[in-house]
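Example record

One chain of 345 residues, shown exactly as stored in the release files.
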Amino acid sequence: MGVFISTAPAGLLGNQVGGSSNVNCYDQAMVTLADIRAARSRLDGITVRTALIPLEHDGRTLYLKPENLQPIGAFKLRGAYNKIASLTDDERACGVITYSSGNHAQGVAYAARALDTKSVIVMPSTAPAIKREATAALGAEIVLVGPSGMERQLKAEELAAKHGYVVVPPYEDEKIIAGQGTAGLEILEDLPDVDLVLVPIGGGGLISGVSTAIKSVKPSATVVGVEPEVAGDAQASLRAGHIVKFPVEQVLSTCADGLRAQYVGTLTFEHIRRHVDDVVTVSENEIMQAAQLLARNPKTVAEPSGAVATAAWLFHPELLPASNRTVAVISGGNIDPDLLARIRA
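Predicted structure tokens for this chain:
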């Protein structure tokens, strides 16, 4: 899997998996159930309440959480809108900026337009055309840079300092995490006896919010993250007890372009360690097979990133705990039209 590099400064992360107990410096920043409920109030009438869709396969039933049905085709609108709506009028007047490969970009652009705020998006030149074009269509100003996530972030911070924009991070933010957590509340309402929830992991914002909601209401439920094998940094981090960074060339090789983060955030890692039971990985072939299966139903069409949780359920039941009620989150459906045509052929 390449060379792993710890990105966490000594002592920063507090309790380590399998290690000694230290003071957690992020105790004051951890998202709560109250934060998620407040986010839900802000999102009323903005996001779609995506109802669970049962998938029958080989005598088993999986319940799909179709975030591909959001107005931007992905869950990212939840966090982006919650963050921008939480800003003061003066802050929104300055405009907002983010760095994203696509779905968060669209979430920020959509939310900014709804709240009459200027948006600037720093995107990699390798981002799928469908995501670049959709972001531009929402009125955002796009700045293209190289493929590295750090390059995107540094450029956004540079422009924010120069022009006074407010940075809306993809995942490393309490309001972002709380917004994503509203999907977890909906899962619990639709399936109160859920005992296993499978969630894709990129930077960790979605699973941080969903796991906080699930564990706060039903601690007995199990939450498992899912990543591509070649971008399995969250699994490596959870195993090591500290944040592990994957080489950019390696994570870029996954078809799941929305999960190409080289490492999870410091804040999201704290939520993962506290609320997530395990992280499993799936192969590129398994991801594409899952996307092919999901594409049979127009309501569950998933981009590769959105299909990873389903792939874990399909191909790795031996890695998952026994469950009578399992939910897999389809995090997004912004799939390249040519790729969709090929997998449907």
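Notes: Residues 5-74+173-344 form a domain with the Rossmann fold fold (CATH 3.40.50.1100).
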